[in-house]
Structures are given as structure tokens and as C-alpha cells.
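subagent[fold] <- orchestrator: predict structure for attached chain, return C-alpha cells only, no commentary.
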Amino acid sequence: MGIMSIIGMIVVGFIVGLLARFFYPGAVAMGFWMTTLLGIGGSLVGGVVTSLIFRTPDGKFHRAGWIMSIIGSMVLIWAYLNFAR
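subagent[fold] -> orchestrator:
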């Protein structure tokens, strides 16, 4: 993983986290880093769910698309608001 991959992951995680915060009902107060971490984590959760639903023939991890990433981030926001505080 190069530095550009890490920067790209941070940018995409932040965008996914912002979109998840926008679609999540109610106000969600969190900073840049928490939004980014929940966006990256949501992408991983979305990838796992996508891998369970749409199995690949070779059994490898299936990437999540934007919609599943946002849904996964919304699930993590819900868990963060209900269990982490």
C-alpha cells in the first residue's frame, strides 16, 4: 500500500462518512477523524455483507459499492450513538 492508496482511502472514507451522516436521521455530532473512520469501517461492513449475499466463484472478498458502504456506515453510526457513549 502506497501513500496515495492511504490518502485515497481517507478521502473516500470521509465522503462515505459524510453521506452516511447526511442520510442518518437526526443530528450526528462527530469530528473529521470519527467521520472518516466510520466511513472506512462502513465500507468494510458493506463489503462483508456484499460478500455474503453475492458470493464470488473464487471465494475472495467482494468490494462494497457506494450504496452498501453508506448503509454500512449508517449501521456503524447507529452502533456508535447507542453503545459507545
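orchestrator: received. Logging for downstream: Residues 46 and 68 are 5 Å apart (CA to CA). The longest helix spans residues 32-53.
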